[in-house]
């Protein structure tokens, strides 16, 4: 019974154990499944999180790259704006300098024109005054000669009549009054001859004199810009006649003295420009732009590296100053050969063309003198060269201003009348100074400006009446539409054989072979080809490149006689006769 009972409990025990184990196993399995499910869910969430983080990282990287690109573009734009601003400032500066240069050129041109106008006006006034005096004297001389001739004829006729009637005297002979208003000569037979009306009555043996003596009275007044003087006629009537044209102004019956127009050697600074004082004919003072100072201007002078000239064309070139002394030039060269009046050769083999001048070519008047003088100034000497705008010309020659022994050689050649002022390309730095030097040479009649003592020079009766320098179309292929017309206003014919006509260059010169300009006639010189006549001359140039003579931008005509004397010059850039 016990064994049976014990076996039953054992079975129950083991059943319980099996149930417990099964329960534990089931719980464990459920726990594992739950943990696996939780783990699986966590892993999925982590992947989503990682994907989101990765996506965020990619987006951040793209944003960083975009920011870097934007920063680069911004920096590039700022750099471009900076360079653009620099370029605009440089262009503005160049424009302002060009404006200054244009203003300087205009002011200097106006000053030259004003000076020329005053000179021409004074010459015209003197001419008309002389003409008036000559006409009065000529009229008086003619009147006197006519009276003398009439008197001689009357005396001759009277003598003939007296001889005829001397055998029958009945009246006293002689000049007497026929009545109160008539004068005549009475013969012995009582007849009359040479009767003349007495304007102011007749008394005794002669016509009564005029109540007043004709002539100018000591009374003057002003009329506009002229001086008038009262003139009294023999009938005592008076009139106001012009006796003088005032170049400046008229006050209280006399010309008021103005001022001589021209530059005054006083300077001041205006920014980076050096200005020179100019006085006009009405005594007004203006300051004219004179020189651009690359290193600034102080006390009326350009700072170092500028050039200062005195009245004798001497100068000092500064490259800065150290220990109270000017620094030496960077290079000194020696002239080994003088080719002509405006070209030299240096010791280093370079050829230099002196800019701003044009000397006569070989065989032309003053060419020998020009070459000789240039040799005297430069040959074998150490020189200093100054560049303007252009480095060299089409022949490879250096374009320079040349200085030796403190002398500006280019200017000295012009001042001595051995070269013309000639603007070579854009190299015009000393154009105004060179013009002053040329004016001085003309006044002193330097070599190329020497005038002859023959009549047509003194009379100034040969003139240019018209210069047609701009032919229709291409000037080089329409040469006979380029021409100059001259007039001989002399009261005598002028033989122009071997006279020359040339322009500002050294290569264009025309020599007249045989021609006589008759008094009061005009003749025309055509650049092209044709047959010469009494009124037409032809240069005989043929169509082609560089065949036209007269520059459309401005030029000067030079007319010389067969001795090389300058007869006239004519500048058509401003249409002014000089």
TrEMBL record:
It comes from the Archaea. GO terms for molecular function: endonuclease activity; hydrolase activity. The chain crosses the membrane at residues 6-26. SMART domains: SNc. Residues 451-574 form the LTD domain. SUPFAM superfamilies: Lamin A/C globular tail domain (SSF74853), Staphylococcal nuclease (SSF50199). InterPro entries: Lamin_tail_dom, Lamin_tail_dom_sf, SNase_OB-fold_sf, Staphylococal_nuclease_OB-fold. Residues 329-451 form the TNase-like domain. Keywords: Endonuclease, Hydrolase, Membrane, Nuclease, Transmembrane, Transmembrane helix. Residues 94-126 are annotated as: Disordered. This is TNase-like domain-containing protein. It comes from Candidatus Iainarchaeum sp.
């Amino acid at each position: 019974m016990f064994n049976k009972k014990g076996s039953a409990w054992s079975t129950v025990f083991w059943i319980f154990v099996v149930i417990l184990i099964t329960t534990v196993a089931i719980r464990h399995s459920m726990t594992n499944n739950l943990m696996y499910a939780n783990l699986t869910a966590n892993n999925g969430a982590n992947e989503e999180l990682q994907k989101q983080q990765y996506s965020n990282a990619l987006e951040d990287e793209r944003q960083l790259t975009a920011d870097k690109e934007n920063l680069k573009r911004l920096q590039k734009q700022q750099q471009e704006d900076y360079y653009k601003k620099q370029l605009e400032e440089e262009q503005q500066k160049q424009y302002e300098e060009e404006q200054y240069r244009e203003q300087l050129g205009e002011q200097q041109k106006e000053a030259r024109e004003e000076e020329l106008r005053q000179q021409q006006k004074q010459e015209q006034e003197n001419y008309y005054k002389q003409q008036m005096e000559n006409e009065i004297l000529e009229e008086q001389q003619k009147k006197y000669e006519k009276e003398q001739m009439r008197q001689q004829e009357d005396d001759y006729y009277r003598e003939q009549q007296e001889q005829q009637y001397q055998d029958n005297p009945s009246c006293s002979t002689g000049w007497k009054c026929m009545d109160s208003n008539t004068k005549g000569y009475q013969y012995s037979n009582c007849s009359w001859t040479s009767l003349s009306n007495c304007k102011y009555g007749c008394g005794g043996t002669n016509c009564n004199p005029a109540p007043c003596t004709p002539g100018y009275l000591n009374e003057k007044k002003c009329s506009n810009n002229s001086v008038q003087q009262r003139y009294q006629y023999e009938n005592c009537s008076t009139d106001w006649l012009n006796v003088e044209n005032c170049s400046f102004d008229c006050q209280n019956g006399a010309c008021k003295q103005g001022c001589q127009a021209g530059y005054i050697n006083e300077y001041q600074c205006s920014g980076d420009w050096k200005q020179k004082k100019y006085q006009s004919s009405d005594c007004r003072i203006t300051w004219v732009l004179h020189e651009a100072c690359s290193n600034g201007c102080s006390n009326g002078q350009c700072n170092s590296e500028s050039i200062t000239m005195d009245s004798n064309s001497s100068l000092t070139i500064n490259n800065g100053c150290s220990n109270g002394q000017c620094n030496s030039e960077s290079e000194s060269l020696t002239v080994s050969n003088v080719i002509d009046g405006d070209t030299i050769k240096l010791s280093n083999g370079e050829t230099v063309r002196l800019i701003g001048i044009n000397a006569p070519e070989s065989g032309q008047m003053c060419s020998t003198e020009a070459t000789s003088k240039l040799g005297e100034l430069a040959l074998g000497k150490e020189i200093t060269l100054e560049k303007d705008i252009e480095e060299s010309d089409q022949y490879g020659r250096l374009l320079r201003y040349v200085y030796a022994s403190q002398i500006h050689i280019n200017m000295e050649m012009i001042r001595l009348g051995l070269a013309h002022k000639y603007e070579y390309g854009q190299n015009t730095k000393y154009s105004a100074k060179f013009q002053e030097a040329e004016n001085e040479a003309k006044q002193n009649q330097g070599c190329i400006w020497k005038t002859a003592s023959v009549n047509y020079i003194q009379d100034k009766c040969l003139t240019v009446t018209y210069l047609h320098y701009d032919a229709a179309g291409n000037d080089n292929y329409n040469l006979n539409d380029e021409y100059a017309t001259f007039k001989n206003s002399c009261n005598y014919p002028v033989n122009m054989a071997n006279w020359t006509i040339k322009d500002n260059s050294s290569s264009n010169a025309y020599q007249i072979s045989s021609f006589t300009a008759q008094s009061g006639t005009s003749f025309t010189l055509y650049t092209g080809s044709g047959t010469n006549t009494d009124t037409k001359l032809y240069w005989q140039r043929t169509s082609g490149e560089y065949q036209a003579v007269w520059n459309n931008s401005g030029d000067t005509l030079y007319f010389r006689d067969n001795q090389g004397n300058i007869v006239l010059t004519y500048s058509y850039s401003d249409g002014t006769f000089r």
